[in-house]
Amino acid sequence: MSLPSFARVAAPADPILGLAEAYRNDPRPNKVNLSAGVFVDETGKTPMLATVIEAERRLADAATTKLYRPIDGEAAYRELVRQLVLGPEHEAVVSGRALATQTPGGTGGLRVAADLLRQTGASETLWMSEPTWPNHPQMFHAAGFKVRTYPYTDATGRRIDAEATLAVLGEASPGDIVLLHGACHNPTGVDPSPELWRRLGDLIEERRLLPIVDLAYQGFGDGLREDAAGLLELVRPGAELLVSTSFSKTFSLYSERVGAMLVIARSAADADAVQSHVKFAIRVNYSNPPAHGADIVRTVLADAELRPRWEVELAAMRARIKDNRRAVVGALEARHIPGDWSGIATQRGMFALLGLSTGQVARLREEHGVYVVGKGRINVAGFTAANLDPFADALAAVVASGA
Ligand code: LMR
């Protein structure tokens, strides 16, 4: 017997991590990496947070065992995470109808959510925004969903088209799944207004849709509570939804793969039943979660001294991203690159979408060593004093010479 012949034909590189790999292999000294969403400081490094270093020191001092962890994670971690996402006083937390599960990053959380839905007979149809994070369609396809899209922005890619979004989602059938970005929309950086969240909540309720909220950047937009406000609009009495969250960016724990998936069910009894299916989905996939990243997050969130220090570190990352946003607008406007770039200054999170053609993106990479994703998604958190001008010069040159 042999592998199927299809396995001998190389699969396309991942639209984001494949670019990061190509960047690593690029020998040009002045290359600029704006591909994967990774925070860098003004020296271009992705530092460990001081609170993470302190938590690791405490954990190393106290370590005695590497025993397996529970399938859905340690109880203390699960409790802290559901409070972080929903707020400790929230009715869904107090009543016990919201439960969190530790997952390997936000990607792992989304995949657990997908498997949970497929194995319990949910609708096969899942609606996602166009554009969205490129891993969303490939992941939900791989999990067995039929993916449909709703328009999200207007033609500029820099403003939400609320009416078009609601009109297309109005065609969804009862039970269909709708994937929403909780805050810091990836790739556009454009989030729904409070009014649009309310209207989405109404539509989801009327059409009996099931939301999955991808909350990978809680705290990178306007603040921890502010960035959860949209999804809380969906947590109405009796409403059900799933949330995937990640600590890759907000704790700078990228390689530790730590995140969570929350189930908000109709009642505490329902949540317990759903949790048994969540555990099955995990057991048949990766069995049980890695310990280290979750231990760090738990140690920081549970500690009266470390937690406020982490919130200060998070606020500093957020402030740097906002500064970078203003600097990008300044650099593009200074070069008179055609287009209205001003919105980039007030968008949220790590990303902005320039709306480039495939040819322009390829020329940025091939002729200038500038790596951006898809239709010109840039990682705004990746700019430094050293790479902003080379990027803006390259963009000006590519745009000036046409397609
Ligand atoms: C991104 O969108 O660049 C990040 O979420 C990293 C990833 O895994 O794609």
What does this entry look like structurally?
- The chain is α/β, with parallel strands linked by helices.
- It folds into two domains: 13-48 and 308-401, Aspartate Aminotransferase, domain 1, CATH 3.90.1150; 68-302, Aspartate Aminotransferase, domain 2.
- Helices cover 41% and strands 13% of the residues.
- β5, α8 and β6 form a beta-alpha-beta unit.
- α2 packs antiparallel against α12 (306-334), α12 runs parallel beside α14 (388-400) and α13 (358-368) crosses α14 (388-400).
- The chain starts with 16 loop residues before the first helix and ends with a helix.
- The model has no long low-confidence stretch (mean pLDDT 96).
- (2S)-2-hydroxybutanedioic acid (LMR) binds at residues 16, 36-37, 133, 135, 186.
Strand-residue proportion: 5-15%
What is the number of E strands? 11
> How widely separated are the two ends?
48 Å
Q: What small molecules does this complex bind?
A: (2S)-2-hydroxybutanedioic acid
CATH superfamily of the largest domain: Type I PLP-dependent aspartate aminotransferase-like (Major domain)
Structural class: alpha/beta
What is the assembly state of the chains in this entry? single chain
Sketch the major β-sheet. 7 strands, mixed
Number of helices: 14
List the helices and strands and how they pair.
Blueprint: H1 17-25, E1 32-33, H2 50-62, H3 75-86, H4 91-94, E2 98-103, H5 105-119, E3 125-130, H6 135-142, E4 146-151, H7 162-169, E5 177-181, H8 194-207, E6 210-215, H9 229-232, E7 241-246, E8 259-264, H10 268-283, H11 292-302, H12 306-334, E9 351-353, H13 358-368, E10 370-371, E11 377-379, H14 388-400
Parallel strand pairs: 1-10, 3-4, 3-5, 5-6, 6-7
Antiparallel strand pairs: 2-8, 7-8, 9-11
Helix pairs in contact: 2-11, 2-12, 3-11, 5-10, 12-14, 13-14
The structure holds (2S)-2-hydroxybutanedioic acid.
